Amino acid sequence: MASTADMRNGLILKIDGSLYTVIEFGQNKTARAAAKVWAKLKGVDNNRTIEQTWNSGETIYPVRVERRTYQFLYKDETGFNLMDNDTFEQIVVNANMIERPDLYKDGQECFVLVNTETELPMTVELPPNVIMKVTYTEPGMKGDTATRTLKAATVETGAQVMVPLFVDENELIKIDTKTGAYVERVKS
User: Fold this and answer.
1) Taking CA atoms, which of 28, 123, 130, 145 is between 20 and 30 Å from 37?
2) How many CB atoms neighbour CB 92 within 10 A?
3) Domain covering 65-125, topology
4) In the chain, pLDDT over 70 holds for what percent of residues?
């Protein structure tokens, strides 16, 4: 058990039998009333987003979560197949537990958040950036670089990414996995 003083972004709490992660939080203090702690929460095991308010010092129930390194093997009709890099044990995860499923390629390293109470996987995350090869993009027009114009590009996993005009086919690019946006060109 913990109190509201232990609140931080990314903390996973158990509220009414469901798991929620803290997206943002803050305190409201008034001269006459006791301080209140508020939090915006996103469901881990459901797709709900809620806001919750507690009195300052009230008990909250955090869930201990481990972040384990896995390797993405392949996707089939049962889901995404992952292998633990330490034990070589394989697990199958549903697509709704995967963040940015369009950016997974064979052999890609990923992180599985595991609830230590039940030993069940909760979500699967990619590293902050991934490097992908551009398989198709329209050629940029010569001299059209005065503005920050973007064009669509398809990467090796089939995902669509908006890239600057100077990016061509068969080049490696770095992609931000949180937003799915182009970061930079990578030298091979």
Assistant:
1) 123
2) 13
3) OB fold (Dihydrolipoamide Acetyltransferase, E2P) (2.40.50)
4) 96
